[in-house]
Amino acid sequence: MRPMLRVVLLVLSIALALSAQTAPAPIPRGGPASNSVPIQPMEAPRAGAVEPFPLDQLKPGMQATAWTVFLGNEAEAVPIEIIGLWKNAWGPRQDIILGKMGGKAAETNVAGGMSGSPVYIDGKLVGAVSLRLSVFSPDAICGITPIAQMLEINEFDETLPPGAKVPEKAVTTAGLDLPEGLARQVMAAGFRADSPLAGAQLTPIETPLAFSGFTDDTLDTFGPMLRQMGLQPVRGGAGAAMNTAKPAAGWQDSLRPGAPVAGVLVSGDMSITGLGTVTYNDGKRVLAFGHPFFNLGPVSMPMAKGEVLMVLSSKFQPNKIANATEVVGALRQDRHSGIMGVLGESAEMVPVAVKVRSFDEKNQLRKEKDLGFQVFVHQKWTPVLMMLTLFNSINGLNDFMDDATYRFQGSIEFENNQKIELSTMRPQEDLPMPAHLMLAGWWADKFNQLFQNSVNAPRVRSVDMTVDLLPERRIAAIENAWMDKREVHPGDTVTVKAFLRPYRGKRLERSFTVKIPLQIPAGEHRLLLSDADTLNRQQTLVRNANKHLDLNQTVSLLNQERSNNKLYVSLVQSSPSVYKEDKVMPRLPASVLNVINPTKDAGRSTVNLSQTIEETAAIPFDYMIDGSLALPLRVN
What we know:
The protein contains ten helices and 33 strands.
């Protein structure tokens, strides 16, 4: 080897040796060297007092952290970049903080159920994630309700705020002439032509109203009405502990900030819960949502824990899919800037028992199902929840047919031992509304009457219902009638035969006798054969005319309602009668009638009729009776 080449190789070898001695050792694949300090994970917030972050110190570009649950019940940190303060965006002197969510929220978007997720800067509470910007937005832009606005909830009184989300607010008639007040709202909502989707504006995050134990038909039927109210019906679940409204053991340590929280409308064999996130917990009182649930003001509703199964990612309608697990307290306020609940307290619910039975063509019992659940007590929501749960109970029997008839018996018992007993039949007819929805609407209307009396609220102890599904269209129209004599004397007995025409069946005949009252005056009268609706109109007129019926009078009027599966026989006399409150004064002479002045007592109007209708007989049928027929009768 040449001398020069040897020198070059020697220099290169020395240089490589020196380089190997001075280079740093490689970092193992598992992370930094063993002697480095590990990065500590962020600790989820706990219950207790926390310092609010001053709004005047908020600057665009600040880095904040929100806490919310994506799986299970442990909150995870979500980075938020502050965009700025949107002045008066939520009302007079009610600013909203705009932020851009990162981390998992950037993938899921601002999801239903995130409402109330607490946001912190340097350990200070900024507020709650509560609003989203537009739909189909590629960025997870959220609105944050400042915590100062939420803390005001504790100072509110017991008055009802305007703009409450109650079922009557969702009515849109769409030109349809449909029966049953609450059922009308459901059908009308389904016929809306316009879309409720918002444009590029800041809107409250949809509250996922989780339905457990409900059929697809129920959600399809009632979904449009709920969505008009700003609620989003979704599939959900509930644990066994939801069978009671009493707080479960360990409630003291529940609902940490960032944890799921649910308001309970129905619990038991079927449940309806509204899911959000806890913003603040001082150890007793809990603030959540950052926007209203229903904006009901003072409220008494069970408050439950929850567990998240997953977050459905979507640019249009992301939602948390979750279960409500157990009741730990009661919601006491539902306001514009959030909800407030108290741990360990209980809310009253109405226990409901439903028996649904199916019969075959030979009137033999095929199957039956017993259901039990509890319903939230509220003058506007209890009626619609009764309608919804009855509709769903019938749907769950799985025995639908085109020509079915529903036979119903129900009772409502009150804490003062008063009781209402009602029965009806509802066959499927050629109407745009299904029979079981009409039945459910009829039942809900009874609770409307009870809860909207202007004197005292009802305290319902229990509700019991039995619904029979009969495999044919059982409706019979009054076709003709015959009477053995047309001229009678007081005290005589008249034999009557009535003929009714059922749907696709042989003509029905019934014979009965009518005794002419001794006190009936001489002259021309009528014997009226009628359905229940004909006679119930008087009670309806009385109820609509009186604005100050108390609970006892309302109960009395409901108990006076006739059942539509009976043929009613009445004597119609030409002498006038007066209906006042829940009482009737028949056959009044002109001298007495002139003394009664319906205008003296405002709001307690009397209803004057030019004739007196006195029921003499009620003949039961296993059909819904329809129509009326009058036979002339002369008393000598």
